[in-house]
Automatic annotation (TrEMBL):
<dbReference type="InterPro" id="IPR008503">
    <property type="entry name" value="Asp_endopeptidase"/>
</dbReference>
<protein>
    <submittedName>
        <fullName>RimK/LysX family protein</fullName>
    </submittedName>
</protein>
<feature type="domain" description="Retropepsin-like aspartic endopeptidase">
    <location>
        <begin position="34"/>
        <end position="166"/>
    </location>
</feature>
<dbReference type="Pfam" id="PF05618">
    <property type="entry name" value="Zn_protease"/>
</dbReference>
<keyword id="KW-0732">Signal</keyword>
<feature type="signal peptide">
    <location>
        <begin position="1"/>
        <end position="23"/>
    </location>
</feature>
<dbReference type="InterPro" id="IPR021109">
    <property type="entry name" value="Peptidase_aspartic_dom_sf"/>
</dbReference>
Length: 174
């Protein structure tokens, strides 16, 4: 039997996992020029993180806490994790794993990371991104935004930081 606390937790997880209704994931209009460091809104709750825009990375990577991969059904891999924003606000997610990435380490080893889809916004430009869940605790930036998201949305002026003029407001959740 579910109690009210369990039901609220289930509803919060479903809400946090829901992707905003984008007409499509293709960028619209001209790309915006931003600095190599910008504030990034993550997920449909627009959790704000300080991010590095990195044209040297294929996909994006976010600092995730308490990452637990589990099976839902016989074949599907899911992952439960928490993201913490600049203001200390934490959001728990349950997401379908779209694939696993093997990431080379500086010491020559390989780390296997779950990859998910999450909506991102930087400089007022929303889109869905492929993001691997990482321990970025030793890095200065909580999120790294790769080319897969940046392409046709953002041009980067590597001599500047925090240049975004347009805010990332929470998307409509129709």
């Amino acid at each position: 039997m579910l109690n009210s606390r369990s039901i609220v937790g289930i509803i919060a997880s479903i809400w946090a996992v829901s992707l905003p209704a984008f007409a499509d994931d293709e960028p619209r209009g001209e790309p915006v020029t931003l600095g190599y460091i910008e504030n990034v809104a993550v997920g449909n709750l627009a959790l704000e993180m300080k991010g590095k825009l990195d044209t040297g990375a294929d996909t994006s990577s976010v600092h995730a806490f308490n990452v637990k991969v589990y099976k839902r059904g016989e074949r599907d891999n899911w992952v439960r994790f928490r993201l913490v924003g600049k203001d200390g606000r934490a959001i728990r997610y349950d997401q379908n794993v779209i694939r696993f990435a093997n990431i080379k380490t500086k010491r020559g080893g390989v780390i296997r990371r779950p990859v998910i889809h999450l909506p991102l916004c930087v400089g007022g430009r929303w889109g869905r991104a492929e993001i691997n869940l990482a321990d970025r605790g030793e890095f200065e930036y909580e999120i790294l935004i790769g080319r897969e998201f940046l392409a046709n949305r953002v041009l980067i002026d590597s001599s500047r930081t925090f240049t975004a003029e347009q805010e990332c407001e929470r998307p409509n959740e129709d």
